[in-house]
């Protein structure tokens, strides 16, 4: 993970299936976010299994799993409200 301006950025490679796994979001969790917004792609091809959502909820993190365009809008709205929010966005399919 690297810091770019006011943002922490990182990238990782995830297959559409099995999708985003708990280990994939650990770095975001360590940053102390209240909400994690996950964008599944423009046609929602990226899977987010229940085990990942459960892992985040056990850590006290609210999870929003959305189509990527909607996820970006949700992320921006939450940032505007001053909420500590993290985002994982699949930018293609």
From TrEMBL:
<protein>
    <recommendedName>
        <fullName>Mth938 domain-containing protein</fullName>
    </recommendedName>
</protein>
<dbReference type="Pfam" id="PF04430">
    <property type="entry name" value="DUF498"/>
</dbReference>
<dbReference type="InterPro" id="IPR036748">
    <property type="entry name" value="MTH938-like_sf"/>
</dbReference>
<dbReference type="InterPro" id="IPR034096">
    <property type="entry name" value="AAMDC"/>
</dbReference>
<keyword id="KW-0963">Cytoplasm</keyword>
<dbReference type="GO" id="GO:0045600">
    <property type="term" value="P:positive regulation of fat cell differentiation"/>
</dbReference>
<dbReference type="GO" id="GO:0005737">
    <property type="term" value="C:cytoplasm"/>
</dbReference>
<comment type="function">
    <text>May play a role in preadipocyte differentiation and adipogenesis.</text>
</comment>
<comment type="similarity">
    <text>Belongs to the AAMDC family.</text>
</comment>
<dbReference type="InterPro" id="IPR007523">
    <property type="entry name" value="NDUFAF3/AAMDC"/>
</dbReference>
């Amino acid at each position: 993970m690297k810091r770019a301006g006011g943002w922490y950025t990182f990238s990782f490679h995830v297959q559409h299936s099995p999708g985003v796994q708990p280990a994939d979001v650990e770095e975001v969790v360590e940053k102390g976010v209240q909400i994690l917004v996950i964008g599944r792609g423009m046609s929602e091809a990226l899977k987010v299994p229940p085990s990942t959502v459960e892992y985040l909820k056990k850590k006290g993190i609210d999870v929003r799993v959305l189509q990527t365009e909607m996820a970006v809008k949700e992320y921006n709205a939450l940032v505007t409200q001053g909420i500590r929010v993290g985002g994982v966005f699949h930018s293609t399919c």
